[in-house]
Amino acid sequence: MEKTRFTVSQFVRLLHLLFWAMLFSLPLWLNNPGESFARMGIMPLPFYFISLVLCLLLFYGNALVLYPRLWNRKWWWLYLICFIAIIFAVNSLKIAIATHLFPEMRIFGRNAPFIFAPTFLAMAAGSIYRYIADRIKIEQSRKEREAERVASELKFLRSQVSPHFLFNVLTNLVSLARKKSDRLEPSLIMLSDLMRYMLYDANAAKVSLAHEIQYVKNYISLQELRFGEDVRIDMQTELAPEAAAYQIEPMLLIPFVENAFKHGVGWIDNPYISIHIEASDHQLTFCCENKYDIEDHQHKDSASGIGLANVRSRLKLLYEGKHTLSISQEKNLFKIHLNLLL
What we know:
Layout: H1 2-24, H2 26-30, E1 39-40, E2 43-44, H3 45-70, H4 76-101, H5 112-178, H6 184-199, E3 207-208, H7 209-227, E4 232-239, E5 247-248, H8 254-264, E6 272-280, E7 283-291, H9 294-298, H10 306-318, E8 323-330, E9 333-341
Parallel strand pairs: 4-6
Antiparallel strand pairs: 1-2, 3-5, 6-7, 7-9, 8-9
Helix pairs in contact: 3-4, 3-5, 4-5, 5-6, 5-10, 6-7, 8-10
C-alpha cells in the first residue's frame, strides 16, 4: 500500500512539473521561427515570466498554506477576505512593475484581462486543486477505515468458527468415550487432521475448493464413526475439471454441515442428511438438507445459531453481490441452498 501511494505521489509531482515547464516554455511554441523572443503576445517576455512566477507562488501558497489553514467552518470568511486581498495586492504589484520597468506596455483597456485575470485564475486553481486533493484523501481514508473494519470483523468471525466447531466435535467424542467405543481412536486421528486444517490452512485468505470439500468429507467421516448406520448420509460432489483451480474462503461450508448434524439427529425417526456440491463455470452450488423435529429444534441451546449467523456475515463481507443463500423449512425438512461466484 505504501509503495502505491509513493508512486501516485511521484506521478502527481511529475504532472505539476510538466505543467509549469509547459507554461514557461510557451513562448518557444507560440513565436514563429526567426521572430524575436522579446515579447509574449502583448507582454514583454520578462514581464510574462515575472507574472508566471507570481502565479506559481499564488497557486502553491493558496493550495498548501492559505486554504488548509483558513477554509473551514470557523475561518471561511477570513479566507475569502485574504483571497480577495491577495488578488488586489498582486495585481497592484503588477501595475507597479509594469509602470516602472515596462512603461511602453499598455496595462489597461483590451490588455487588462491578459494581465490581471491570471492572478485570479491561479488563486482559484489553487483552491480547486486543494479541495479535490482533500476529497480524495478523505475518501481514501474512509476506504482504509472500512477495509480495516471488514478485516477486523472477518477475523472475529473466523475466530468464532474454530471454538464452535471444536465444541461440537468434542461433545461427539465424549459420547464415544462414555460408550468405550472402538471408534474413539480413529475419531481422534480424524480430529487431528481437522485441527491441522483449522490451525494452518484456515489462516490463509483463500484455500482450494478441493481442500475445503475434503475437510467437509473428513468431518462427515468423523460423524459416521459416531453414528454408524443410525443416520443415513448421502453426499455427492460434481466438480468440473477446471474446479481444481477454484479458491474459496476457508471453513465456509462446514457451518451448514454442522447445523445439519446438530438438528438432523437425535430423537428423529430415520434421520437423513443430504449434501450436494457442484462446481463449474466459476459457480459453486451447495445444497444441504436434513430431517428435523420442530419441537426438538425449538429446545436446542441458544448457541445453535452461531454457525449459520457466522457464515451469513462472512458471505456478506466477502461475497457481497456474488452469492445467494436461501434457507427454508418445510415438511420437517431443513434446506439450505447456496450459489456462490468463485
